[in-house]
Amino acid sequence: MTDTQQHVAIIGAGVAGLTCAYRLTQQHPDWQVTVLEQSPHPGGNIRAVTHEGYTFDLAANGVLPAPDTLALFEEVGLSPEPAADTAKRRFIFKDGGLHALPESPVGLLRFPLLHPSEKVRVALEWWLGKAHAGEESVYGFMARHFGAGFADVFAEPFVLGVSGGDAKKTSLDALFPRMRQLEHNHGSLLKGMINMQRAAKKRAQETGQTAPKRRLMSLAGGMGTLTKTLADRLELHIRCNTGVTQIHKHQDGFRLQLQHGETLDADQVVVTAPAHAAASLVQNVSAETAGVLREIPFVDMRVLALGFDRVHVPHALDGFGFLVPDGHGVESLGVLFTSSLFRNRVPKGKVLLRVITGGKRQPDICERPFEEVLATVRRDLERSLGITAAPEMTYDIPWRRGIPQYVMGHKERVARAENALPAGLWLAGNSYHGIGVNDTITHASTLAQAMTARPRAVLS
Fold it and tell me: What element of type H or E holds 300?
């Protein structure tokens, strides 16, 4: 190799690995980039399937507009489609019924699940809100700004909808860093949100454009279209059915032990496997990193995609879906009204719901027989949406260790893990710097830039 060439091995062909590989091949066409994927197909969790005429995502069913994601869509020739207008309407199931969540700060003062005294406390946040030094849980952050009554209503479903975790154990600073930044810039969150709305309107007036709506978007055929498109572009770089069992230091780079006794040498390595799997891979290179990665907890998740005839669903399904706090007679974490979000994904006259189960509420969800889980879900749908009919289509999506938990101390843990790695060995994926697809794409893109800056010691 010349001094300008590198061989980069990327372990895992999910959205993190594919994004990083794509960026590297665009920035450094002279570099050799190899993506190693243990399963028979690339894509990781970001995949869509069509089953009995219903098309749905196995994991994330869309993203909010974000610069790095929009740029990636454009570069690979994808045009995102916005969700229906009703997608901005979200519900919470509490006290036996569905309640539409407020869509603006002013709406909080009319929200029926808050007592009058709690609404007064919410309004006082304009004057009481201030920046805070030190890490906080999501629950603690909300209670400090808006009062315990507000946190009791909103904190739990807020976290359940993102990670399936516990709001009193989840780090606000790790899971929702933009909230901390908003507080840092404005003190009051109410003041910050209103200032941001005013600034967006002002920019729109100055440019003569309509203020952009921050609405969920997806791709034709589901979010799996993104990973499939990236994989097609990287076809010559991807090796499926090729698991990595261990990473070793070798000369100025690394030697990867592959299944079936094969080895592969690389100057730089990106590990996109979940933290618990990454720990085993890096054990021989950095025992300290491996130990820290094993401290990151995960929860099992299980998604049931259910198809119904529209006449058997009495609810209007005029929204995104709903979340369920603990103690309200529904075991499921929430339900997405998938057929109401994106058109042409279900047969005519049908309805598609995706029911999310597991998380901290049902830690053994992946061990339960499907028939038992389905029976529980059907009871939940009867209580929440009034559905008594059996689904015409069912599809079971179990995710063992499906979502990492950003518990208190997460950012410090990740920093320790990354700092203990030798130069040229990198971590990526949703175990570290953001659970969502947008965060994963942003970090993978940033990582590709950082790899360029590494001193180019190469294999002889």
Answer: strand 298-309
End-to-end CA distance of the chain: 7
Q: What is the pLDDT of residues 184-200, one digit of tens each?
A: 999 999 999 888 888 87
- Residue 170 per-residue DSSP state: B
Q: Are 445 and 22 in contact (CB under 8 A)?
A: no
Buried b (16+ CB within 10 A) or exposed e, 404-441: bbbbbebbebbebbbebbeebbbbbbbbbbbbbbbbbb
**SS3 of 233, please?**
helix
**Can you tell me which residue has the tokens 């070798």?**
250
Name the 3-class secondary structure at 83: coil
Report the C-alpha gap between 358 and 59 in whole angstroms.
14
Which pTM value belongs to this model?
A: 0.94
Kindly list the domain boundaries of the chain, sorted by start residue.
Answer: 7-45+223-296+407-453, 51-84+299-403, 114-207
Between CA 32 and CA 188 the distance in angstroms is 49
Number of residues in the chain: 460
Closest CA to 319 of 61, 85, 64, 55: 85
Q: Which CATH number is 51-84+299-403 given?
A: 3.90.660.20
Q: Going by CATH, does the domain composed of 114-207 fall within 1.10.3110.10?
A: yes
Strands of 200-260 (E only): list them: 217-218, 238-239, 244-250, 253-258
Under the banding of pLDDT at 50, 70 and 90, the label for residue 455 is very low
Ramachandran category for residue 196: left, alpha or beta (phi over 0 → left; psi -120 to 50 → alpha): alpha
Asked if 305 and 350 touch (Cβ cutoff 8 Å), the reply is no
7-45+223-296+407-453 carries CATH number 3.50.50.60: yes
